Amino acid sequence: xxxxxxxxxxxxxxxxxxxxxxxxxxxxxGGIIREFGSEHVDxxxxxxxxxxxxNAHVHVGDSAFKDPPFLPLSKLVGPDGLKARNxxxxxxxxxxxxxxxxxxxxxASGTCAFADFREGGAEGVSMLQEAVLGLPLIARVLxxxxxxxxxxxxSCWGLGISxxxxxxxxxxxxxxxxxxxxxxxxxxxxxxxxxxxxxAALALHPDFxxxxxxxxxxxxxxxxxxxxxxxxCPRSNLVTGVGLPNVKRMLELGITIAVGTxxxxxxxxxxxxxxxxxxxxxxxxxxxxxxMCTLNGAKMTGLDQRLGSIREGKEAKVMVIDxxxxxxxxxxxPLSSIVRRAVRSDIxxxx
Length: 351
Description:
Elements: E1 6-15, E2 20-29, E3 32-37, E4 45-51, E5 53-59, H1 73-77, H2 82-89, H3 92-108, E6 111-117, H4 121-131, E7 138-143, E8 158-161, H5 169-181, E9 185-190, H6 198-203, E10 208-211, H7 217-226, E11 230-232, H8 234-240, H9 247-252, E12 257-259, E13 262-263, H10 271-282, H11 286-293, H12 295-300, E14 318-321, H13 334-340, E15 347-350
Parallel strand pairs: 1-4, 5-6, 5-13, 6-7, 7-8, 8-9, 9-10, 10-11, 11-12
Antiparallel strand pairs: 1-2, 2-3, 4-14, 14-15
Helix pairs in contact: 3-4, 10-11, 11-13
């Protein structure tokens, strides 16, 4: 068997779980980061080398009908909202094409893994699995049971629940119990339109919550005490006018935060855009924001031993940013410039 070719990446390496910018190189062999060194080498690519993103909450099923009117949340994504009606009448081939294009955009803009809350029962799960075939993406699919059912397809990674107010409580508990029996993850939307569904969501002991933009101090303290991570999607919250998450307070309480782009019909699934917004509007801490978009997302999806940071032995899910591009030229702090200004056209290479 021929020896796997080594790939050498030179420049500023955003290294380790603390994302320290270090000048040097990494050696990749067989898709694994084998070595970090501080000397100069004859590299295949040179630039700012950083881990790729994990989009911890997205709905790619609505990619075929983008930029709807500005409507209240319930009229957009509620059980009888615009999204549900469009999904019901959209041809299969059109839905599949939209999903494929969104996934291609995600891969091209630096995402390596994502968690998708699947609509459409078993057919919706199958459609996503078809759409992602051949793309350099790890899909964590959270399914929803069909009407009157409690089980989701075996191929799902987990169970994804919309607000507890959308469902019969007994049915939700049975569905969660069925998922737990099969060692599946459980994620729940909560605290998006109001905070009245947070208590019921916490009672399910989920692996993570999504949104929590309407959470009050007592709610956040309960979440922190329970040790439950939160996925925030602030651009989505901005579009629907439901208020922005208190990211700073969540971190002060020790809550692990990851980032998602949410519904494609409202926002591009490009994590660069989400990262820009969080860093400028919600949290002036570039290292923490980058961690939320990479390692924390990997932790939430059970992938942190494989990816999410650059360390020897981890998979080389990395990208190289051109520090000489018109956009990045003059950057004084490489990590800050990635977080605040880098865009997908600045990417030289993706591994």
